[in-house]
Design goal:
Blueprint (H helix, E strand, L loop, with lengths): L1 H27 L8 E7 L5 E9 L4 E10 L1 H4 L4 E11 L3 E4 L2 E14 L22 E14 L8 E11 H9 L10 E9 L1
Antiparallel strand pairs: 1-2, 1-9, 2-3, 3-4, 4-6, 5-6, 6-7, 7-8, 8-9
Length: about 200
């Protein structure tokens, strides 16, 4: 009888210890809807400044982000412009260039909705059918490079990306391909940005 009690107590303690350990781990696990990183970007056809959050999907094959962009009056030379963008970035490969430091060529595309007052998704009635294409939605193509740094002792963030991209909007590219007056080099612009990982 005493032998049974001696074995029962450690087994119960082991069981409860494992149960509490599993609960502690599950509390620390990130929920699916919590973003992997936050970002800020300057320029890039999605706002003079844009901010948002992103997810690393399919084992870091795709980075998808939801961003809010803003162009103030002094830059737009008209009204303030507000933009909502879904940006998709594909890392081409990763190359370690130092301790906790990686460089990655990237390429991708973005879809942007201009929610300002000077654009439209359906043609206003004052224009004949087919006179203009919708001006509120644009597609951006880009490529560039990203440098990632992991932090050894993370406090708030686990790591950071710095990136540089060159891109164009689909309408600009169309003009460059169809009009002799517009050079391909004229329609590309640069942007820089940073991602902070949780």
């Amino acid at each position: 009888m005493k032998i049974r009690k001696i074995f029962t107590l450690p087994i119960l303690l082991l069981f409860f210890n494992n149960s509490f350990a599993q609960e502690a781990v599950s509390v620390k696990e990130k929920s699916w809807y919590v973003p992997d990183y936050v970002k800020a970007q300057f320029a890039g056809n999605i706002g003079l400044v844009s901010v948002g959050a992103g997810y690393q999907l399919f084992n870091r094959v795709l980075y998808t982000e939801l961003l809010y962009g803003f162009v103030p009056k002094f830059a737009s030379r008209a009204d303030n412009i507000h933009l909502i963008t879904i940006k998709n970035t594909f890392p081409i490969y990763r190359k370690e260039i130092g301790k906790n430091l990686t460089i990655t060529p990237i390429a991708g595309f973005a879809t942007t909705l201009d929610i300002g007052t000077n654009t439209f998704t359906t043609l206003p009635s004052k224009y004949p059918d087919g006179y203009y294409v919708p001006t509120a939605v644009h597609f951006t193509l880009f490529g560039g490079a990203l440098v990632h740094k992991d932090f050894k002792k993370p406090k708030l963030f686990k790591g950071v990306d710095f990136y540089l991209e060159f891109g164009t909007v689909e309408t600009y590219l169309w003009y460059a391909l169809t009009l002799k007056e517009v050079s391909v080099l004229d329609v590309f612009s640069a942007d820089i940005g940073v991602n902070f990982y949780f």
